[in-house]
Specification:
Low-confidence stretches: none
Order of helices and strands: EHEEEHEHHHEE
Radius of gyration: 17 Å
Protein name: DUF8009 domain-containing protein
Structural class: alpha/beta
Strand order of the largest sheet: 3-1-7-6
Largest sheet: 4 strands, mixed
Mean pLDDT: 92
Domain DUF8009: 5-140
Pfam families: DUF8009 (PF26033)
InterPro entries: DUF8009
Distance between the termini: 34 Å
Number of strands: 7
Organism: Haloterrigena turkmenica (strain ATCC 51198 / DSM 5511 / JCM 9101 / NCIMB 13204 / VKM B-1734 / 4k)
Length: 140
C-alpha cells in the first residue's frame, strides 16, 4: 500500500519550508560550486519540514532523503530574473569589477526579497513510483 512505509516518500502530503531557505539555496547554487537543495529526510509522514542542504555529492541513495531543487518551488518568472554576475563582468573594465560585484550583491538581496512572495503552492517530488505532488506550506 502506498505511503504505509516510513521510508516511502509518497506518504508526504505537504512540505513546510522557509522562503529564506529557498532563496538562499537558489542563490548559493548560482554563486558557488556544489548545490543547495531543500532536503526532506525519513521517516516520512504526511507533513514534513524541508531544510536547506548543501552538498557536492548527491547522497540520496544512501540516506533515502528527498531533494527538492529550490527553483522548483519559486515562480518561473522570479527564477528567470536572478541577477547574472558573469554577464555584468563580461565586458566591464577591470577597474569597475569591485563596484559591479557590490551592485550584484545588492541585486541578489533584492531578488531574494521577491522570492518570499513567489513560493508556489505545490511541487512534484521524485519517488521510485514516479513524480508525487505535494503541497508547499511557507513558514514565517
Amino acid at each position: 500500500m502506498v505511503g504505509d512505509n516510513e521510508d516511502d516518500p509518497t506518504a508526504i502530503q505537504s512540505i513546510a519550508l522557509s522562503a529564506e531557505d529557498v532563496a538562499n539555496a537558489y542563490a548559493y547554487t548560482q554563486e558557488n560550486p556544489g548545490a543547495a537543495v531543500l532536503r526532506v529526510t525519513p521517516p516520512f509522514h504526511g507533513r514534513m519540514r524541508a531544510r536547506i542542504h548543501v552538498y557536492r555529492r548527491d547522497d540520496t541513495e544512501l540516506t533515502g532523503a528527498v531533494h527538492v531543487p529550490p527553483e522548483d518551488v519559486i515562480a518561473d518568472d522570479v527564477v528567470a530574473d536572478y541577477p547574472d554576475l558573469e554577464a555584468r563582468l563580461e565586458d566591464a573594465p577591470s577597474d569597475e569589477t569591485d563596484e559591479i560585484r557590490k551592485r550584484h550583491a545588492d541585486a541578489v538581496e533584492e531578488w531574494q526579497a521577491r522570492v518570499r512572495e513567489a513560493i508556489v503552492d505545490a511541487v512534484a517530488i521524485d519517488t521510485d513510483a514516479g513524480p508525487h505532488r505535494v503541497d508547499v506550506k511557507r513558514l514565517g
